[in-house]
## 1
Amino acid sequence: MEIPHNVTARPDTGLYNSKIGIWLFLASEVMLFGGLFSGYIFLRLGADFPWPEHMLDVTKGCINTAILILSSVTVVMAWSSLKLRNFRHFQIYMSITLLCALGFCVVKAFEYKAKFTHLSCELSNGLVLEGHDNDDKGEGNDIVYKPSRAVFPIETGEIHFLEAVLPSNEKDAEAKAVVSLKVPVASIDGNKIGVYRGDDKKIKVALGNSEIEMIAAKLKGGDEFKIEDEVIEFTDWSELAKVIDAQRDVKKRFLRAENDRRKYAGTVNQATLAGVTAVPKKLSDSLETTTALAGALQKFFSEELTLLVDTKGEPVSIKPSALRNQDFGWTDKGATLRDGTIIEGEYLQKESKLMLAVDGVDLRRLSPTPGEYDPKIMKQRIEASGFAEQFPTIHAAWEEQFAKYEKKEAEGDHVTSKELYYAKYHGEHGDHAEGHDAGHGESHAAGESLERDFDSHGLPIYEIDRADVRFLSTFTPRLNTYYATYFLITGLHALHVIGGAIVLAYFLFTGRKMYKENPEHLANRVEVGGLFWHFVDLVWIFLFPVLYLL
Amino acid sequence: MASDSPEAIRKSIKLYIIIGAGLLVLTALTVAVSYVHFGSHSMNVAVGLLIACIKASLVGAIFMHLNHEKRLIYIFLVLAGVLFVALMGLFIFSLLDIPGQNLFGY
């Protein structure tokens, strides 16, 4: 079908239709980025940390700005070439534009990569160190426990954890760890619901006057397991597998009951479900039963059922990224992992040391009032923090920088807090013999040097006690609101670059046919695509100074 | 349209290159002035944003042809501009959350 006014202008607007379309779209894009910029201003004004200025790689930002400006010129030249009916030139200019888009994304990828591997480590005294995992020595920064046991929460119907727990050879006698299944046992009283142990030692769910055998159906009490108060101890893995099977059945029944309940009862909230005695009166008897069962089962499986595995005391290393929460997900008594597993045991402090190759330090967090850096107070605080003694190489680098800018300030020049209290260290190749000897492998008292070695870039490696770490993060959105907005806005912008490039590539690679049929139509398409491309450039024109420079 | 004639386009090609070079120069300028102190940090931000606005206007006027566009598109843009300014001011309402020092003084 021929769409009117693709080539010719509409008489009332004086424009061809897609041009109106793209401008309306761009107006909405202004709103999208406007909201994000507004959010940026809000977060910046309310920030309680020194806002990073000139912290990103300005060179990379400059390169990307230049790339986008160049591509803006070439895309408009591509359009001009079509207007002048020179298809060859159009192809050349459009290809350059696409190469620019690719170049932009490559530079961006390098920029992101650097952020993902760079660490910021805030110590409990306020000192912020920047650096890298010392992975070129093969030492990870794992948190190590001597576990007493591991707890695997069982979720209704989910059996994936079993593969992790069960030894591959079920018959292997060695592998028969003791597994405890904690089952809540409640007494039955009248019409209340409960889970209880019957006289025949079977676990049962009671429901009003009826009794539903649940796990009991599969757990044929007696020899394979023993029941002690509230804990069933399995010694046979295959029995456990049967329990899990039983769970899946129950899950099916639960879901069916839940569906029925919703279908007939409308909205009964979860609280009602959990407090099983308060079943709505509206429901018929049978429904009441179903609802009650559903509630009981839900409670039973979501809260009470856990699987305890006796791990024979072998040390367990946990990667920080595997923790549910890197800051609070672990204590000296145990850790909670992302998959819900809880490792209980003794935290091995010596094995869990953080080895950090440090390339920078930020002293501004030592200030008692954020944003104000009284030289006297700062001096006091820096001395008290043990910075000089614990991190001698980095301290020397900072001191040198500080002296330089202090002199500048004395001469009347304007000096920023970053120049005075934030220092980067680029490493020294060659002579660092004294560092090699410094307290290597010895235990140390507070105030002693933590310097252990130098990495291949000449950066000093410090051994940091995890107990002294207040916050550890890569330069990702979780570090602070600045990096959160940085990744959000530049990520969205990069998606626009990719999207725009796909459309322009489509014009380049499929345009020949249209050019032969109606060159003006292709020119209009390219103009519209180009308008979007210019807009993407325009956003970057603001992003670059706002995020990189100011 | 007169501006779409081949002669006019040939002329404007030169302009595109000049503007492109100008944008690069302005980028260098933005970077340079960001290391100069203008009395307060807010002034630095203002100068940086001013240069960005000049660059954006050049892109808009020349590359996006807004220097000779139809009325309807200007109407769209004015509307977008007004709403953009409103968006920039939205966070002021966060001040309402601070007891004792909000906009209305209670």
## 2
Amino acid sequence: MSNTYLDQFPAEAKVVRAAFYSSFFALAIGGLFGIVQTLHRTDVYRFMDSADYYTVLTAHGVLLAITFTIFFLVGVFTWAVTTSLDRGVENLRFTWAWYGLMVIGTAMAAIPIFAGFTDSIDMSASVLFTFYAPLQGHPLFYLGLVLFVVGTWLAGVDWFRSWRAWKAEHPDERIPLPTFMVLTTTIMWYIATLGVAAAILLFLLPWSLGLIESVNPLLTRTLFWFFGHPVVYFWLMPTYMMWYVMLPKFSGGKLFSDPLARVVFVLFLILSVPTGIHHQYLDPGIAEGFKFIAMTNTMFLLLPSLLTAFTVVASMEHGARQRGGTGYFGWLKALPWRDPVFTGMALAGLMFAAAGFSGMVNAGMNINYLVHNTFWVVGHFHLTVGTAVALTFMAVTYWFLPQITGKALWSRPVALVQVVLWFVGMTFMSNAMHRAGLLGVPRRTAEPQYEGVTFEAAVGSVGELNAQIALGGVILTISLVLFFANVIATGFNGRSDELPSNGYADALSGPEDAPLVLDNLKLWTAIAIVLVIFAYTFPLLSIVQRGGLFGPEVITFPVSLESLAPIAAALEYGGLATVDGVASAVTGALEPGRIAIAEVVR
Amino acid sequence: MGALLVVVAFTVPLFVELRTVLSWVGVELTVLESVALAAVAIAALLVWALWPESDGPDSSNAG
Amino acid sequence: MNVHTYEKLWLIAAMVLIVGFIATITYGSVGLGIAMVGDQQETVEPTELADDERFGEPRVEQIGDDEYEVYVVAQTFSFQPDPIEVPENSQVTFHVTARDVIHSFSLAGTNVNTMVIPGEVAEMTVEFDDPEVYGVVCNEYCGPDHHNMEGQVHVVPEDEFDLTEVSVDAPDEVDAGESATVDVTVENRMLDGLETTAELEIGGETSVEEVALEGGEATEVTFTVDPETLEADDSDVEWAVTVDDHEERGTVTVIDAGDEDGGDDGGETDE
């Protein structure tokens, strides 16, 4: 008789299963759109109008960066809390309620996005994942995002309820590590989503409904990045959790250090949010000093990731030595490379190291000039969210599936080939994206082939880079097909009694070595909030002071083809002049401020 | 076999960037030459690992 | 807390690395002078750019010996002016704003790259050395035709560069037997003086006038064309005005008495 998660918590296993399947559904559509874009952009195969590329890109971004990752996260976190506290959720209906809210939110946001493909429905939200105003999506899009986020907030409430109930029964015990990770991540998420909630509820939604006439594009953009950077840690934290509490188990050993794991998550809690301005290094209207502060905060965020690298590798080595590995590097041979779960996670971790290096370049404030908004950035986040996160999720799915279905995985060899193919495909694709970015090839464009702009490759040619990207995309697609084949075929398997038990890795150095202060969530929350106030009060005040809370008058730009004609006509006609000339009385008093000198790099 | 598969996968990034590294010392490879070089290297790796006489190939230790 | 020795060493190495990164970035800012696009510039009203002192006329302006300012407006889906022409060995300060949505102004393959946000003005100073043509792309998604938004910056040899504006006022039609006057306005927007010629070619005859202008001056040269010159086989007489490498062309229609056939593509042009 097995002792899987399904056996322990049959009702919760259904929730986790629903969350995972929702996540995979988003992955399937998002992945399909991924290959469509790859082939379109590289001009290998184009079957749609280039204007539709941006609709595909919006769906790809929202479905993969938000839906796929966060649905998987709520599944993992629910598993982690129930397993590590050894108690079911407090109220199953509440749990299903937040899951339902997330599904409704996703559907509401998806409707206007997909309506963008057809002219027969007067609805569109081709505003990309970042929805920068004055580009304007359909109100349903913003409303859907709000509901989705509220769903995640309630999920957080669910996990906190479980913890409080557990704490009442175990007053003197340390918070189990997986629950600790869930709670710190959730607090970080609450703080981070305040930004996007403010952007949408105060500005974008009323504006799309016509309640307010104008918005301040720099303000909504800044509020977006207040959320937009920590959201990457929201994807990454469940990944880190898997590396900390599962990878040592799959390597055959124990987690190296429980206290250090707690330190890492506390650091992410306090440093994730006050860094968002590093996405705005090149924004006019934000003073250089604020950018410098964001840069130093960002660099210090390297610390928890570097600590993680140490702990993960040390845990793997411990596991390998338990399995009989010896020597300085010989122990590597003793690792279970035939296990797709282990191999996928190890390869994901390795790719994340590469992503860390390109991330350091992005974070380098003045080096960022060279790569900002180029294809380099796309290469970077296909290594982070596209591999470190996605590949870890896929690999660990091969362990989770039997746990939540009670059925044995359909094929481990296929799973092994799948994770290795992902690594190979992403190597080709991401490498060429980075290289193309260095030549100045922009991101987010349907046709990076210009009449008057040439990109000069130092080695090889742009054509070769495109071929490499297309090849990578095709390999990744094959990998995805294998993944879904495995997930679906597993569903058709019968119940098995020979499955491994539910559980996670023990620690060599356990929670008893961790100072009590680490578990003081109130303290860390307070510090996190103070840091956010420090980092954001002055930039936000300055932005509002410069451009006004609701901005200068901007031209609303609904993203659909039909609406372009009247706007163009209005521009020609010049009938846009307004009465309030007061603000425009720029008396020629150009500030004699410092001169920015950027040498042209040749 | 698992470890061997991973090692083969690892040759990919090496050979993808080999062109860049070689161009620093003035050696310009074409795509075809890179692919050929990678194929030779992977073949050599496989022969080394799977040679029957070989004592203790990677595959025997892999889990 | 029980921290392993290796882990302590790793921690120290990590901190050294981080501090090292921050130091290099700081050196880039302070030592090399690579400043960030900041908040030096006053905001603008995106809907009133036409009346704006800075952006009413997107242009290149000389402010010092080798110093220029360029005022650029980005809008769906083009840049103004395009191409932007500046001389070699110059220090050029770009001021860029957006008329509608968020764009970028990015010289491909260089680190000249800035976001362009409606209401805000991005300012960045760039040193150009040798003559070269740089492609400019918008690298922020700005709508369905985003991929067609491009421009160019031409860095030209010093002796090919000027900021001369030429406009010609010529009649569309003249009555047969009467003379015509062609007014040529030459404006020198450079700081240095300009000595050149204005040349009118009409009906196979060429007349030349000397033009001498101080920096920032404008002058008008008037050519009077004799009725004989306008006698041609065709009733349409073509003309061309040339000042250095600026050329304006047009046609004058000579109307015979009783012939009411007016000219169609006549002459008032403005560069």
